[in-house]
Amino acid sequence: MKSTRRSWLAAVFGTILALGAGVDRAAAQSGDVVVFAAASLKNALDEIAAQWQRETRKKVVISYAASNTLIRQIEQGAPADIFISADLDWMDYGQQKNLIKPDTRSNLLGNRLVLVAPKDSNATVSLVGGVDLAALLKGGRLAMGNVDTVPAGKYGKTALESLRAWDGVKDKIAPAENVRSALLFVSRGEAPFGIVYQTDAASDPSVKIVGTFPEDSHPPIIYPVAVTKESTKPDASVFLEFVRSPAARPAFERQGFTILAPGGGQRF
User: Fold this and answer.
1) DSSP string spanning 10-53?
2) Which residue has the higher pLDDT, 62 or 3?
3) Whole-angstrom Cα distance, residue 101 to residue 94?
4) 3: number of CA atoms within 13 Å, CB side?
5) Residue 225: enclosing H or E segment and its boundaries?
6) Is the pLDDT of residue 74 over 70?
7) More confident call, 29 vs 76
């Protein structure tokens, strides 16, 4: 019964995030800037939006979900003004489909990919070539985003393949529709391990990092941002500049993000 309840809670959490992409059109029509952002940005971006509201008395409405879900919603006419993806692929898709304004696009943040376990776990995992994650699971499942669509899942699969560990766990995956749902599976004790971003692990005291994937085991984790093609609100570009500004930097850094220069390199 307890296990069933935990599974239900994890599923509900993911559903809520995904449904958040269906922003009430009244919010868009009110003049508020509407942001569609990758789920892993929630803690930092909520703080930045609150800061913006205090300073300008203008509201920002943010919906969080997997990047693939968000860009598909935009493609179907959802009233977003700004899109922040957790990988380059889905922003590229948006650009190819003429859903964003290319001249507003830049690389905003970087992140790390980690293996997490419940906070009371005694595990320490050396993520090197040949690591036997299947044995560590002990019959449990590895929580991670959908490996075909969710950026964190795609990065995770690539990393596991690079470490020659994918074949051992590919039939033992607990797939999630976004990275925060994968995190919740571990936080709730539904899965003994999960692959998430470093920033997600930092946001949840119920989990701990037990291993960090080598940066060369997967493509660089880059969060691009752009104004959407259909946005006509002047405040969209103003808020985007605020997100890029030194004023927003502490909120991102507190969550463990790396601030990137526009070309994608680390900003010093």
Assistant:
1) HHHHHHHHHHTTS--HHHHHTT-EEEEEEGGGHHHHHHHHHHHH
2) 62
3) 9
4) 3
5) strand 222-227
6) yes
7) 76
Confidence of residue 15 (pLDDT cuts 50, 70, 90): very low
- How, if at all, do strands 142-145 and 193-197 pair? parallel
* Residue in 121, 116, 113, 112 with CA at minimum distance from that of residue 143: 116
Tokens of 192: 């003994």
123 near 155, Cβ under 8 Å? Answer: no
Q: What pLDDT is recorded for position 217?
A: 97
pLDDT of residue 261: 64
Show the tokens assigned to 201.
Answer: 């692990």
Cα 95–Cα 215–Cα 135 angle in degrees, nearest 5: 115
Q: Which residues pair with 38 in a beta bridge?
A: 65
C-alpha distances in Å from residue 168, one per residue of 1, 21, 139: 29, 35, 12
Rounded Cα gap, residues 192 and 66, in angstroms = 23
Task: Indicate the DSSP class of residue 135.
Answer: H
Sheet (strand 193-197) strand order: 173-176, 142-145, 193-197, 113-118, 207-212
Half-sphere exposure of 120 (CA within 13 A, CB side): 3
Q: How far apart are CA 163 and CA 189, in angstroms?
A: 26
Q: Name the 3-class secondary structure at 232.
A: coil
